[in-house]
Amino acid sequence: MVDQNLKIKAENLSIWFDKIHSLKSVNMEVFSNEILGVIGPANSGKSTFLRSLNRLNDLDPKFKIQGHISIEGKDIYRDIEAGHLRKRVGMVFALPIPLPLSIFENVVYGPRRHGIKDKKRLENIVETTLKEAYLWDEVKDRLNNPGMSLSGGQQQRLCLARTLAVEPDIILYDEPCSGLDPISTAKIEEAMLKFKQKYTQILVTNNTKQAARVSDRTAFFLMGELIEVDKTQKIFTNPAHPKTNDYISGRFG
Amino acid sequence: MKYNPYQSEKIAFRLLFFATVLVILPVILIVFIIIQKGISAISWEFLSTMPKMGMREGGIFPAILGTVYLVTGTLIFALPLGVLSAIYLTEYAKDNLLTRLVKLAIINLAGVPSVVYGLFGLGIFVMFFKFGASILAGSLTLAIMVVPIIITTSKEALDSVPRSFREVSLSLGASKWQTIRYSVLPHALPGILTGIILAISRAAGETAPILFTVAAFFIPKLPQSIFDQVMALPYHLYVMSTQVPNVAENIRYGTALVLLVMVLSMNFIAIIVRSKFRKKKKW
Asked: What ipTM was assigned to the predicted interfaces of this complex?
């Protein structure tokens, strides 16, 4: 059952890129240790919503925001410095993006930037996180090979391990399996389900079946608006809004 | 005669090919003639001794040394200025009027004729700052000339690093500077290096900017400080070809050969660095 501790709260969140209104007064609550699935067609604002939670939208000079986002009661734009926020809120991107470094250096990129220099400690981090991401057995003998030499699925698990290495308590996934084969997808999903003990997770996905498989609650976005959010089972069997029904039954999108 | 598209295409191809060949012809001819006429002058003595008999005999050592000093001095000023402003412009600057003005200024700076730089250097560094005709004044003048080259190539190199690298680094909680330092600069470095090498070869080969600011006709001793004048290869070549009567042809062409080898080998290194980088690049 979902733990009812409030983790993230978005109030009247509106986002513009120049004149394009990408997110229209979204109110959303995310609870500790749940997996929130976010579905919706392209340009529905689901990635924009996700990227506002770790303030990655800030990089776009055209970005404008209204409303509030808070994590455990702290406003992420006023009470927390962006670097500290991103350390707590990890992100896995749609395409696996290993930095052009070795497997080892990819994992310790975050920890090194946060000042960890001790070799033993770094080695520990690499082993623990790669095991958590189900990659350790496949790469333990070649940690010094370039991260880009791995297959796509392995690269994405490497990116997951890299995210875990900075010890976040929230993980955001931006269509993490869109380029992966079913086996790699299964491994990522298995990791996500296991992570529920430690992390709060938000999964943006184009694959409605994936949301149905792993998420506790599911949110449906359309044209920048949050249409509805409810228990996953309810969304997929008896949604309150007809548009949600149309989308999950494949009538559009 | 009936119009035949395949026939006219053939003619067009030949024309294009001919134009392309014409481009490389002068380069080959220049290199060939200079080597043919100058190679007989090249010896260890020519490279390492002072000129004698009013430059009609002896070596060109002070001119080589002068050019090396000038290039070094130029880099000391232009390298940090160019690379740092390129980093600022690509990574930090907001797209506002000032930034656009700066970018426009850089493009225009690259198009200013080199003799104008010389005159500017004379006015500012030699006279206003009272550096006199000196290595310092010459280096600063050359530095202003090559800064646009370094900025433009560095900017290109920084822009070619994928945006996703920056996003990944930031998403892991790294600061903006850490992101630049560890995820952007290492991958832009070969491109930046290419620009620096091109700037070196430009600074080594230019005559006009050093004409009023540093170059000496002939100095019997080597420079002692940055406020001394020096001889420099391009100016030495000009002097020997136009100002001194009866200089043996092979000494003139020998000097040209040395300058040419210095500049071309710099460009060659730049090409190698760039192609190595392209092969390694996997994104």
From this structure: 0.90
